[in-house]
Design brief:
mainly alpha, 8 helices
Length: 162
């Protein structure tokens, strides 16, 4: 009944709540606009965890990267995730959400390259399957991957058939 105190969460909730009917989690994720994403990036930069750096790939394509400024936050997050994925501790809601995202993009094992990749993937999938947002994140990532695939393949196939 109360709006969240956090302005980013309040904005995101407002966007989702404006829907005329209840939405599935993946639809709610897709509804969040670029302003919400920009606000999250700005907050992470303001907290001093990363800095935004612009560069050009191959000297032509503009790109943004966010290298860490202070790696202590990243070390803390990795330590928390290691406890859950490697040591088998119960995840906090925050850890479960992060692990769901890593599992959706098949990156959980890449975070811990010196561990058994199969075990990490399996544990991450178990957590993501039990997390309410896990399926929604996975569907959203799959939808994006499908859209990118279509955007790349259709012109290539059209050019090949000409």
């Amino acid at each position: 009944a109360e709006a969240p105190a956090d302005p980013i969460l309040a904005r995101a909730l407002g966007e989702v709540a404006d829907a005329r009917r209840p939405m599935k989690p993946e639809a709610a994720i897709e509804k969040l606009d670029s302003e919400v994403r920009a606000a999250v990036f700005e907050r992470v930069i303001d907290r001093g965890w990363v800095r935004e750096s612009r560069r050009k790939v191959l000297g032509i394509f503009p790109s943004k990267v966010w290298p860490p400024v202070d790696e202590s936050h990243e070390r803390g997050v990795r330590h928390e995730l290691s406890g859950v994925l490697v040591e088998g501790l119960d995840p906090t809601p925050r850890a479960a959400a992060l692990i769901s995202l890593l599992s959706a993009v098949d990156a959980a094992a890449k975070v811990f390259p010196d561990t058994d990749r199969k075990m990490i993937r399996k544990r991450a999938k178990e957590i993501a399957d039990g997390e309410w947002a896990g399926a929604a994140v996975r569907k959203a990532v799959d939808a994006i991957n499908s859209a990118v695939f279509v955007a790349v393949m259709v012109p290539a196939m059209a050019a090949g058939s000409s």
